[in-house]
Amino acid sequence: MQWEAVIGLETHAQLSTISKIFSGASTQFGAPPNTQACPVDLALPGTLPVLNRGAVERAIQFGLSIGATIAPHSVFTRKNYFYPDLPKGYQISQYEIPVVQGGTLTIEVPSNSKTKQPSYKKIIQITRAHLEEDAGKSLHEDFSGMTGIDLNRAGIPLLEIVTEPDMRTPAEAVAYAKTLHHLLVWLGICDGNMEDGSFRCDANVSVRPVGQKEFGTRVEIKNLNSFRFLEESINYEVIRQIQLIEDGGQVIQETRLYDTHKKETRTMRIKEDACDYRYFPDPDLMPLMIEQNWIECIRATLPELPDSMQTRFIQQYGLNEYDATVLTQSKAQANYFEEVLANLGIGNEKQAANWIIGELSSLLNRDSINIKESPVSPTQLALLLSRIADGTISKKIAKDVFQTLWEKPNSDNDAVDQIIKSKGLTQISDSRALETIIEEVLISNTKSVEEFLLGKEKAFNALVGQAMKATKGKANPAQINELLRKKLRN
After folding, report:
1. Burial class (CB in 10 A: 0-12, 13-18, 19+), 390
2. Which residue of 121, 383, 410, 418 has the lowest C-beta tally within 10 Å?
3. Cβ distance 135 to 154 under 8 Å?
4. CB–CB of 40/47 below 8 Å?
5. Where is the Asn/Gln amidotransferase domain (predicted)?
6. What is the pTM for the complete model shown?
7. What's the pLDDT at 431?
8. What is the dihedral angle through the alpha carbons of 130, 159, 236, 206, rounded to the nearest 10 degrees?
9. How much is the CA Rg of the chain, to the nearest whole Å?
């Protein structure tokens, strides 16, 4: 029997507010345990929650970016369950009426050389996105035979984003998670730091025979905080369920954890249904009313979205799809590119893209820094590229200048010219001087001259290399080629 997987994702994104969703306690990561949990977070007697306006604004931003409906009226509820790191005995969330309803996200699934599956695009339907508070954190590693509880995360603002069961392969699930992560970081509503727990996924996985309309029994894989673990855990779970059914067993609706060391899922608890949580409206919170003029004010502040910017880069700057995609991997990188062009002028778009994707990205990766921390500013890179264009330096010399700027940062906008002048790197373009050098090269390399005259083109390249070496790379390569061929023809 042939089987297919049915996958839906629930993603918890920590919103980028400086205070918690219902209190003024800090959301800063890394504080000592239990130093950022205030009485409101713990629901101590006499305290009342107050909704964070910034969290609502970020939820609206997300909803608008995916074409969702923003509910004019939504309600906060209490989701009741008992867990050591849930100090209230309930979680404040949204159930029947979430703030964000519907919407879509278009993903691109990369090609797979093993299965010969080409890349393709797919639209994933978003069911809802609702606001809620996070629970605390149970600590197991540092306590022998015991569990420690850190309540710093209690009350952290979360946007839980739930998809329809539209995905059929682990690759589609990873593509969706990466696209969603990119969008949230692009909007600035989540820092996307998966190691800190700012972006984590729960995967709902079931299998069914190919062609069957009814869904199988789903299993939830909880708290996946890396794209690799997301793919591995779904792969394992799909195989486990198929083998279980084919052996005569039955899949149980449950919550499972992924053991990253054993590369397998294991039971955490039997999966609850909504009725088990005994949802009811939180009596301490008024309904959330969102007026249309507030929505329109937020819409006016939305940045240009990644897909729109990619299309514009292709149409406006004549870039190919690959370059446009790479340059819009982050908003900071896209802004860097456009700032270079603003200082460089029209006609140099491809060269600017090549340098950012090539030289700049290589050094950023080597030094593990982001583009905002680049020692070379967009203005400096623009000046460097203009010096290649006007013939002042060659591309090879430009790379040396770029390396110097990187290793010895200089905030002056004219630092490029300072380095060229101080190191005497100006390109040699004097025809008489170059002819003299070429004559010396021809005299010193008679064997290569003879080979070229016999029709061996590689010998010509060797002569060009010798000429460039004699000028210490300062000669104009195109001029060297022209003069050298002229000499050889004579």
Report:
1. exposed
2. 121
3. yes
4. yes
5. 335-488
6. 0.86
7. 66
8. 10
9. 30
* Distance, CA of 465 to CA of 473 (rounded, Å): 9
Q: In angstroms, rounded to a whole number, what is the distance separating the alpha carbons of residues 445 and 459?
A: 10
Structure tokens given for 378: 């967009």
Comparing C-alpha atoms, which of 301, 360, 310, 368 is closest to residue 334? 310
| Helix ranges (DSSP H) in 223-360 | 227-246, 292-301, 306-317, 321-327, 331-344, 349-355
Q: What are phi and psi of 48, to 5 degrees?
A: -135, 140
- pLDDT reported for residue 295: 98
Token pair 């074409």 is found at 67
Q: What does the alpha-carbon distance between residue 85 and residue 149 come to, in Å, rounded to a whole number?
A: 6
Residue type at position 214: E
- Cβ atoms 243, 278 nearer than 8 A: no
- Give the per-residue pLDDT at 413: 86
Alpha carbon of residue 146 to chain centroid? 37
Question: What whole-number distance in Å separates Cα of residue 22 and Cα of residue 5?
Answer: 39
Angle between helices 170-187 and 227-246 (to 10 degrees): 150
Of 265, 285, 295, 316, give the one whose Cα is nearest residue 91.
285
CA separation for the pair 150, 37 (Å, rounded)? 9
User: Taking Cα atoms as reference points, which of 155, 173, 156 lies closest to residue 164?
Assistant: 173
Which tokens is 121 given? 């695009």
Find the length of the chain. 490
pLDDT averaged per 10 residues, the chain (length 490): 95 98 96 94 93 98 98 95 88 95 97 88 98 92 82 96 97 98 97 94 97 95 96 97 96 94 92 77 95 97 96 96 95 96 91 96 95 96 92 87 93 90 73 74 79 77 79 70 75
- Contact criterion met (CB below 8 Å) for 144 and 107: no
Tell me the two tokens of residue 257.
């954890």
Identity of the residue numbered 2? Q
Are 182 and 17 in contact by the 8 Å Cβ rule? The answer is no
* DSSP H helix total and E strand total for the chain: 17, 17
Distance of alpha carbon 482 from alpha carbon 468, whole angstroms: 13
- The Cα–Cα gap between 419 and 42 comes to 60
Residue 277, phi then psi, degrees to nearest 5: -85, -10
Distance of alpha carbon 236 from alpha carbon 167, whole angstroms: 16
- Give the tokens for residue 424: 């005497």
